[in-house]
Write a structure and sequence with these properties.
Blueprint lengths: L3 H8 L12 H5 L15 E7 L5 E5 L2 H5 L4 E5 L29 E2 L5 E7 L2 H10 L3 E4 L25 E3 L2 H6 L3 E9 L11 E7 L2 E5 L5 H12 L6 E4 L15 H13 L3 E4 L15 E9 L5 E13 L21 E10 L12 H18 L4 H7 L17 H12 L18 E12 L5 E8 L4 E4 L9 H13 L6 E4 L16 H25 L14 E4 L2 E4 L2 E7 H8 L3 E8 L3 H6 L3 E12 L6 E11 L6 H20 L30 E6 L23 H13 L15
Parallel strand pairs: 1-12, 10-11, 14-15, 18-19, 25-26
Antiparallel strand pairs: 1-5, 2-4, 2-6, 3-5, 7-15, 8-13, 9-10, 9-12, 13-14, 16-24, 17-18, 17-23, 20-21, 21-22, 24-25
Helix pairs in contact: 1-12, 8-9, 8-16, 11-12, 15-16
The protein binds dioxothiomolybdenum(VI) ion.
InterPro entries: Ald_Oxase/Xan_DH_a/b (IPR000674), Ald_Oxase/Xan_DH_a/b_sf (IPR036856), Ald_Oxase/xanthine_DH-like (IPR016208), AldOxase/xan_DH_MoCoBD1 (IPR008274), AldOxase/xan_DH_MoCoBD2 (IPR046867), AldOxase/xan_DH_Mopterin-bd_sf (IPR037165)
Organism: Methylorubrum zatmanii
Pfam families: Ald_Xan_dh_C (PF01315), MoCoBD_1 (PF02738), MoCoBD_2 (PF20256)
Length: 746
């Protein structure tokens, strides 16, 4: 039923503009205040001592030596830590991760916090923490996927089904003309936002103010309230700027809570910042996987069966299983598909959502297996993908709400020059004699919707406010959301006061699952539409207004005016409408949530196709990605500049996944041996090729009122597989283990 909300979603002039980040100047000039930049009066510095073993007990800490160090104010251990109102090991839901808050002498993983030293200076706290010289009762660490017989977890990821299937895979494989079974392994990875987790905590009686980077302000606020027995209204969490998150800041973790406990213990504000090394343990990671895929095709190359099973690891004390098989439920058509997961428990910190959790690891395996199957059928990898294109979601059978993947393949292939690909591996060389390979990978990420609230106001001077506790991890969310807000109110962006990044604003949900712009944007749209509906009622019901009788569905707003849909020349300014009504302002609240009926009826995903060119030194195995072209269809594009930049970032992560990133765990100590940005490799500029991202047009009437799908995570999917397939095409060597390092080509 068309109404002003429906109309307004189509009449904006700000959505679609390639604006630069609104906070860009603040950031590049250093004026933006990140959590650790806050220095309240009387601030003390806290430094964590962390475990050097992965399993056992702490038997001794030299608290006296640390306390005796000049400048040290207090040493917080299990003996004197403030009592908590909630057990840090309690778990009421899958999103409530167990925390290490000095509740016992048990060590569950390396780099687990075991004490906190609080001092007048950072140096004194650091030296004090060194003086604790912990002693341990050590038990052997259990590391790797072969430590025990795998178990089937109750749920994977954020509570997804462990298994899902359709049809009879064994029968499909048995009747297949050709079949393959292949095993892919992906490495453990650790989120490494440039800004480590940090907290500045201030207590004022039973009121608490916490500055900390967060992808979910309200969740952090509620967890703090529960842990400290506070009324949530008395807990304020502020996150104006984040230096990246990638999922690791979606939840409050132990070190942040320890900073709050330290402030309570000493009765002064405390700052606690993780050292880079301390990021490798208590704040989540992407667990390693071993994925077994079995595929069969008929004589024409059509899949008869696809089976995708993932073995992964979680911690000894909590549950998060990388849902790497899940995307095989969504991507390729086959009469029989089965997906499942199993897991083992190891002595690491609990794994977590990490940018494209499940899809990133799963995609590199699935796209590799699809490439292998295409070759077994003697088909071009792109033709094989088109042959097995899913017109409906493979397992659920639901139609897609929209799917422009065919256009992604076509536009990407044309731009890349896929038709110049020689069929045989190891048959292309560049002018310097290096081996050249082309590879393709399909990208997919679910188009999720979560819950959010927002508040909006229009004032008589023609300015407006939109407020919600939304999060900008650096990707430009506050710019995109402000564009939605300005269009929603029908005002120019420079007339908009956009407030965000605090837990005392309406709850904007979580910046995760690539769903923040869609979800928070929908809440904004709902609030701004409610404001306009009030204005429309004031105007269209008043004989003195040129809009009289037009009705709610007969007007829309632009440039601070309500206009008639049937005659845009006739309208009235917000100021005039409010003045005649004797009102200073109108305001309203709005909410967004997934629509159960449309979510039931349709499968909703963003899609893409990534094409990679690599060059490989035939003697030394050195691999260079020389070109990447990604074509993505993700519904309505709010800001093409920012979206392009998200795709670049995702594809660069794909380079990282394919060629660089791995956490090396010492099986004896259980410690990450490369817990620093020097040895934990991520691509640097010299590793990043010419990248292109094509924004493929797609209109989706079902995902949400604005037609927005997420763009934050899809770029990683497809890319790593495309690169691995290109390495095979260049060399004729199929490396089924990422990162693909040069020793694996020799
Ligand atoms: Mo993302 S891994 O949902 O922050």
């Amino acid at each position: 039923m068309p109404d002003i909300a429906y109309e307004q979603a189509r009449h904006g002039s700000s959505i679609g503009q390639p604006l630069t980040r609104r906070d860009g100047i603040l950031k590049v000039t250093g004026a933006a205040t990140y959590a650790a930049d806050n220095r309240p009066e009387g601030l003390l510095h806290a430094v964590m001592a962390v475990s050097r073993i992965a399993r056992g007990r702490v038997t001794h800490l030299d608290v006296a030596a640390a306390k005796g160090h000049p400048g040290v104010v207090a040493v917080m251990t299990g003996a004197n830590a403030p009592k908590l109102a909630q057990d840090p090991d309690a778990k009421d839901n899958p999103f409530m991760f167990r925390l290490d808050l000095l509740q016992s002498d048990q060590v569950r993983y390396a780099h687990q916090p075991i004490a906190v030293v609080i001092a007048e200076t950072l140096e004194a706290a650091t030296e004090g923490a060194e003086l604790l010289a912990p002693r341990y009762a050590v038990e052997p660490a259990r590391i790797g996927l072969d430590v025990e017989a795998p178990q089937e977890p109750e749920a994977v990821g954020a509570g997804d089904k462990t298994r899902a299937s359709r049809g009879d895979v064994e029968a499909g494989l048995a009747e297949a003309e050709r079949r393959i079974e292949t095993v892919y392994e992906t490495a453990a990875q650790y989120h490494n936002p440039l800004e480590p987790h940090a907290v500045v905590a201030q207590w004022d009686g039973d009121r608490l103010i916490v500055d900390t980077p967060s992808q979910a302000l309200a969740t952090a606020q509620m967890r703090l309230a529960a842990l400290f027995g506070l009324d949530p209204k008395n807990v304020l969490v502020r996150s104006p700027f984040l230096g990246g998150g990638f999922g690791s800041k979606g939840f409050l973790f132990g070190p942040q809570v320890l900073g709050v406990m330290a402030a309570k213990l000493v009765g002064r504000p405390v700052k606690l910042v993780l050292r880079r090394e301390q990021m490798f343990g208590p704040v989540g990671h992407r667990a390693e996987t071993r994925q077994t895929l079995r595929l069969g095709t008929d004589a024409s190359g059509a899949l008869t069966a696809l089976d995708h099973h993932t073995l992964t690891a979680t911690s000894s004390f909590d549950d998060f299983y990388e849902p790497a098989s899940a995307l095989s439920r969504y991507l390729y058509a086959a009469p029989a598909v089965s997906t499942g997961h199993s897991g083992v428990r190891v002595d690491t910190g609990t794994p977590l959502f990490m940018r494209a959790p499940g899809e990133a690891s799963g995609s590199v395996a699935l796209e590799g297996a699809i490439d292998e199957m295409a070759e077994a059928c003697g088909l071009d990898p792109l033709d094989f993908r088109l042959k097995n294109y899913a017109e409906a979601e493979p397992i659920s059978g639901r139609p897609f709400s929209s799917k422009a993947l065919r256009e992604c393949y076509a536009q990407g292939a044309a731009r890349f020059g896929w038709d110049k690909r020689a069929k045989a591996p190891r048959s292309m060389r560049d002018s310097a004699g290096r081996l050249v390979g082309y590879g393709v990978g399909t990208a997919l990420f679910p188009a999720l919707m979560m819950q959010a609230e927002a508040r909006a106001e229009i004032r008589a001077d023609g300015t407006g406010t939109v407020a919600l506790g939304a999060h900008d991890m650096g990707q430009g969310a506050w710019t995109a959301l402000a564009q939605i807000a300005a269009d929603g109110l029908g005002i120019d962006l420079d007339r908009l006061d956009f407030q965000s990044g605090r837990s005392d604003l309406p709850n904007a949900g979580i910046a995760g699952g690539s769903a923040h712009t869609a979800t928070a944007g929908s809440a904004i749209h709902s609030a701004t539409s409610a404001v306009l509906a009030q204005l429309a009622e004031l105007a269209t019901g008043d004989e003195r207004s040129p809009l009289y009788g037009a009705g709610n569905a007969g007007v829309f707003a632009r440039g601070g005016r309500l206009l008639r849909r049937d005659d845009e020349g006739r309208g009235e300014s917000f100021a005039d409408i409010l003045a005649r009504a004797g009102r200073a302002s109108v305001s309203a609240e709005g909410k967004a949530a997934p629509d159960p009926a449309s979510r039931e009826a349709y499968a909703m995903h963003a899609h893409g196709a990534v094409f990679a060119e690599v060059s490989v030194d035939p003697d030394f195995g050195q691999i260079r990605v020389t070109r990447l072209v990604g074509a993505f269809a993700a519904g309505r594009i709010v800001n093409p500049r920012l979206v392009t930049s998200q795709y670049y970032g995702g594809m660069i992560w794909g380079v990282s996944f394919a060629l660089h990133e791995t956490a090396v765990l010492d099986p004896r100590s259980g410690r990450v041996m490369n817990a620093n940005l020097g040895e934990y490799h991520v691509p640097v500029n010299a590793d990043v090729p010419a990248i292109e991202a094509i924004l493929v047009e797609e209109h989706d009437p079902h995902v949400n009122p604005l037609g927005i799908k997420g763009v934050g995570e899809i770029g990683i999917t497809g890319t790593a597989g495309a690169i691995a397939n290109a390495v095979y095409h260049a060399t004729g060597i199929r490396v089924r283990k990422t990162p693909i390092t040069l020793d694996r080509l020799l």
